[in-house]
Amino acid sequence: MLDVVCMKSTLPKKPHNEAIRLELLSMKESDLRMRDDLASKGTLFGDYDAGMEEVHRRNAARLREIVSEFGWPGQTLVGQDGCEAAWMIAQHAVSEPSFMQEMLQLLQFASKRNEAPYRQVAYLQDRILMMQGRPQIYGTQYDWDEQGEFNPWPIQDPQTVDASRKEAGLDNLTQNTRRMRESVRQSLEKAPGDPVLRRKQFENWAQKTGWRNNAVNPVILRLTVLPGLYSVCRLSPEERIPEQITQLPFYICSRTPDELTVVCDEASAPQTGKRETGWRLFKFEGPFPFHLTGILSSVAVPLAQAGVGIFAASTFDTDYVLVKHDQLTSAVSALISAGHHVEL
Question: What's the whole-model pTM score?
């Protein structure tokens, strides 16, 4: 993949922790042996095999211990192949919703530090959305549909999916679907006899496992955390907007008969009036049509449930939400758990 090739020259020649690397590779091998055995019997895409679930849970438990000690096992710690093994273990831990969501957050931070390829984030994000019964973003997840066809799980925005895939270092959806169908054709796997019943069984399993216990958030968004710290300032209503503010590339102002509110980066904040400092800024990747409802609440509700206070502002095209810097990690975790895609 392109993202792996681009990073290759920056990686150390030897992993920092060879013992952990070898352990992760062994865990991956045990998973693949079980997978190959089920594929040879034509039952890989059937009910979740008890033996495979046992392997997945055992591997997830050990990965949890590794993460607790070292953080996400990225390429510096365990090399490219060890990092790939850790991602696969997280990807397959489908019986543990909270664990997968926690691993996604760690993987996103690792990807931003060039410790993991972005395609791993894409796959894990899509897998979580699929388990939650929500449309995926990158089109990485496949299953038998209700017509008995092996197709991508429903996609959030089919018009932009190839652009999203390119961003993640993936080929286009048509090519990938052709390759996936050929892989299934060469295996002994057959379409389910009753695809509607099979989908219902999957939904029941997801509900029982905990993927569907929370109310489904009907709006799935892409949000970007902008760099730097911001201030929210209150000036008297008769004051003019300070000239240095109007020269900034980004600021938000609102005036009412009671006050003038200014949001800007901390270094440029007005020295008069009241100030609340230490905010981080989420941008909603719009634009959003005015008739679309639930945009702001789809973010505000999970943040409120996580105990994260917000300051919200809207423009013609989109919305912005600020959270305190010391609550950023909690905010990102809550938004990912709600199904949103967060760029750090």
Answer: 0.66
